[in-house]
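Quick one, tokens below. Sequence please?
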């Protein structure tokens, strides 16, 4: 990961002609909003005039003039503090990515709590960079959790790769607005290389390896040594590798993926998932030498 050689070079800047640092920061806020297409330079001048007259913050003045919404101000503040935050009308990414679109909501906060727990229990150790995210049945929120966790780790400054290993019913390409023509299935059959991994421009540090074309033999592709070697190679490059698996069910795909990752997180849906099935899956994986970090109850 690269870092700014002088990360604090602007922290004490007084701005032009000795203006206070706060005024410089406010101008930065205005510049961010102009660049985002939320303001034009003339509107910025009106906001600054109201700010001086009413003693308000830049955001308060803009909202009182009806030139910005609270969401616009939150967007600019997030960008000012280097926290990726998107507006629903500014990107092709799905609104299911609540960590990117609604970072101040309850769902995003729950994802951040999960991120902290996973960092403490798994990602801090040497060689512990990959994690399979699975569930007993479909529609329990596995893909939602995997995608939003990936965004959350990228927001933390981690080089993050999200792999869609659900070769039966993939969804990650749709959530991130990506082409699914070339992906994991092509990599595993030697028909593609590094170009299969796609970076997400809106999310610095986040890349996605989509599933690719649906193969007739997903269990065999994921069970071959090549998949384990691929995960190992990617885990040496990325800080965090999250792998979205198919629902465990009667197929072996999820277990193959979890074995290669070394660890698994089981997602269950509140008032829906069979607790006996969750327990049986966890015990089965543990018995196979997989570190099961636990089961989370998805209520969103």
């Amino acid at each position: 990961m690269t870092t700014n050689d002088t990360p604090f070079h602007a922290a004490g800047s007084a701005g032009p002609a000795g203006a206070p640092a706060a005024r410089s920061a406010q101008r930065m806020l205005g510049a961010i909003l102009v660049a985002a297409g939320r303001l034009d330079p003339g509107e910025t001048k009106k906001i600054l005039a109201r700010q001086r007259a009413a003693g308000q913050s830049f955001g308060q003045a803009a909202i009182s003039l009806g030139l910005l919404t609270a969401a616009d101000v939150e967007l600019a503040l997030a960008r000012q503090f280097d926290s990726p935050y998107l507006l629903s009308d500014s990107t092709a990414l799905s609104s299911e990515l609540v960590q990117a679109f609604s970072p101040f909501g309850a769902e995003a906060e729950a994802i951040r709590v999960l991120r902290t727990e996973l960092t403490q229990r798994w990602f801090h150790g040497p060689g512990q960079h990959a994690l399979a995210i699975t569930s007993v049945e479909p529609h329990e929120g596995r893909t939602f959790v995997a995608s939003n966790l990936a965004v959350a780790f990228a927001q933390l400054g981690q080089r993050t790769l999200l792999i869609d290993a659900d070769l039966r019913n993939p969804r990650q390409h749709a959530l991130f607005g990506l082409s699914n023509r070339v992906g994991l299935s092509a990599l595993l059959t030697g028909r593609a290389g590094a170009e299969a991994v796609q970076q997400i421009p809106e999310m610095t540090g986040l890349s996605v390896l989509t599933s690719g074309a649906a193969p007739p033999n997903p269990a065999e592709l994921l069970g071959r040594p090549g998949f384990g070697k691929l995960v190992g190679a990617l885990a040496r490059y990325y800080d965090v590798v999250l792998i979205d698996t198919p629902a465990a069910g009667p197929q072996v795909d999820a277990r193959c993926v979890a074995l290669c990752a070394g660890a698994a997180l089981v997602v269950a849906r509140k008032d829906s998932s069979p607790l006996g099935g969750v327990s049986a899956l966890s015990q089965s994986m543990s018995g196979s030498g997989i570190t099961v970090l636990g089961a989370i109850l998805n209520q969103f």
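The chain has two domains: 16-80, 98-298. The beta strands are 130-135, 160-164, 197-199, 206-209, 240-244, 263-269, 291-298.
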